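SAMPLE LOG
Freezer: B-3
Tube label: C17
Construct: single chain, 200 aa
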Amino acid sequence: MRNILIVSLLLMVMMMSSCSLFSSSAPVKQYYQIYYKPAKTEGKKISGTVRVKTFDVDKIYRRHNIVYRKSMYEMYYYNTQFWASKPGDMITDVFARHLAETELFSDVILELERRPDYVLTGRVLALDEVQSGEKTYARVSIVFELKDYKTDRSIISHSFEERKEVAKRETVQVVRAMGEIIEKETDIFFNKVYEALNID
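STRUCTURE (predicted):
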């Protein structure tokens, strides 16, 4: 009887240890999204409806895993840091929200539910964290293009690649910096749109 009790106690201890081991070693997954609050543009509005097509994304960035680099020749995928949605969908939503909240166009649509006046496309070429020695940067590269829907003529395009240093090597800091880059470059792009369409 005593032997049975000892064996039972040992089994319980082993089970508790194994549970503790598994629970402590399980990685915690974290999810992020790019967000910023654009400033409303006063006195400037483009008459017409614009359709924002889902942005294309280079293959290496199509995964949910956030990408980080230690050089331009090597890249890695985080195992616990993820985008909350696919990068193409996320950047498209960010851009469409920028348009809607600043009221740059009369109307903004994502699907071809009705005939628009303009079509806005984009391609994400880079969206990653760059680690260079002790420093960490957010890197974003995107190409924007506005076309006339009826003629498919390109009205204006804007491309950029920018790095922004962050204070700490934390994913949330990198994602925030990415949003700041996109906000600034989106404003630059739309200033070019105003000029192309002769809007003061």
